[in-house]
Design goal:
The chain is of the alpha/beta class. 38% of the residues lie in helices and 19% in strands. The protein has 18 helices and 16 strands. Strands 1-2-3-4-5-6-7-8 form an eight-stranded parallel beta barrel, surrounded by nine helices. Helix 8 links the parallel strand 6 and strand 7. Helix 1 crosses helix 2 and helix 5 packs parallel to helix 7. It is elongated, with a radius of gyration of 29 Å. The N and C termini lie far apart (72 Å). Its EC number is 2.3.3.21. This is Citramalate synthase. Keywords: Amino-acid biosynthesis, Branched-chain amino acid biosynthesis, Isoleucine biosynthesis, Transferase.
Amino acid sequence: MTRSITIFDTTLRDGTQGEGISLSADDKLKIAVRLDELGVHYIEGGNPGSNGKDVEFFRRVRELNLKAKITAFGSTRRKGGSAEDDENLRRIAESGAQAATLVGKSWDFHVHTALQTTLEENLAMIEDSISYLKRSGLEVIFDAEHFFDGFKHNAEYAKSVLRAASEAGADWLVLCDTNGGTMPDEIGSTVAALVREMPAVRFGIHTHNDCELAVANSLSAVAAGALQVQGTINGYGERCGNANLCSVIPNLQLKQGLKCLPEEKLAQLSSAARYVSEIANVHMPAGQPYVGSAAFAHKGGIHVSAILRDSRTYEHIAPELVGNKQRVLVSELAGQSNLVSKAQELGIELDPKSPQAADTIGRIKDLEHRGYQFEGADASLELLLREAGGEVRELFTFESFKMLVEKSAGKPVVSEAFVKLRIGGESLYTAGEGNGPVNALDNALRKALLQYYPQLTDMHLSDYKVRVLDDKEATASKVRVLIESRDADSAWSTVGVSGNVIEASWEALVDSMRYALLGQEPALPVAAAEPRPGLLNH
């Protein structure tokens, strides 16, 4: 029978302790719904005794009727007190959560230094707190903080902490590598010894990533007998983060045959990871295993030639199993296989033996030699391929643009752009102000095009990146500009390169609008019947 592993997600609690991550109550509720759809077993929502945001979360999450067990977090009662009189424990009991995660000290050094109490009082704090929560009707998960450090320093006391928690009624004993400094072999041998010594206990594992080993340590613990893994989506968490569930889950389920999520839910993993990164407003690394956009991306011509025959040649799993997809990158390393595959992906007919294919590869290689990069600018690449096939009609004829940037003492910088174009034989001269020269250019160009292409109203620039290509040239260096644009349905990226950042931005900006308008026909402007040698719009 397949062994099942319980997945405990702490993105909403431990994950928010990561630098740069802050979630509102609404954010946490949205993520909780997505985690529940993914099929995790526990969702730790936060500490209802610590702040109003978490109090609001626990109040509102009851209305969602989620299948996962909503879990409240807290620590053992204060030294010298009683659980019944502890305000934080009372709030956990009244939170409406089905389960409670209670953290307690298992390292004698921490008991003496952090709690400044006796080893006996620490055990009493653990027993009293767990008993109180069990009497309140909650499932109790005891997180033994700094367990592996404590076990190495004083194994008998660390085990006495586990025994005290178990005898008080804890449903799970979770061993925490809180400082993230333990090696996988140590994790495995320690967990295996405890499983033999305490066979009736259900053990879990909670690891941090300070040595880049949180996932490996989680797998090692499961191999030794742990039945629950705690972690976060995308590995968010304090310092270097927590165990990344987006790697833990497929490693356990696809590589080791253990059941973590329902099989049909596993295919939601990539979209869930990206959704959480969007809500958290944290860039998701392209090379993140399993769920990153580059996890199944192929660039080398030999690789692409092989995967077109059989993807198993360079892919360890089918990307669709985790909801990801294969991508073929086109660059100066590419061969005809890359280009043909990319064209097929876009629905473009391209004969690999044609002069057209050779010319397009040559053009791409020349552009990349000059500093262009199409791996992160799929829209610019698609425009190149469609141009080669004669599918792209020019939207306008560019004549000139001018920039005015003015800074006066005591006043903010003012940027204004003037753009001169020709559309359908008509000359247009538009001006726009903006928060910086690129925004001013965007506004001026948009004013001209909106008269003919009103659908651009729904499009906006969502990200802008500049990279210096040769820092030895200092301020005279070439720069590469990547622009991400969005509309109601999708996002796309374009690239521009120049020794002038404004010119590079203009190239990327024009491509973004050309891509948005692929296949569109211009509308007749409202005042087209009037003779107009030019337009000046402010």
